[in-house]
Fold:
Amino acid sequence: MYRVRHERYNAGLIASAIYNVNRSKETKPVYPHDFVPGMSLPSDPEEEQREAAKRGVALAIARVPNSITSQEFETLKQNMIERLNKQGLDGAAILSEVLHE
Structure:
């Protein structure tokens, strides 16, 4: 069992090194443990909340109909920012990341 995990970790080490050398600056680095099933490092709850918010915003924007006007979209964005700010997040930054502004 330990041997298999060790071998997977070593493979993850190589894979993460190759990925990280070739990734763009906008993408997050990956770590060897990301490639080993059942192995993870303790996560940051604030970062998890931020990532969940980004996924929610992306999903909400994907559901916006194409027929929406630019004024309606700006109002929608402002409402999202306000809701995220009420959750203690930086709504403008999250929206900017999702929309790649």
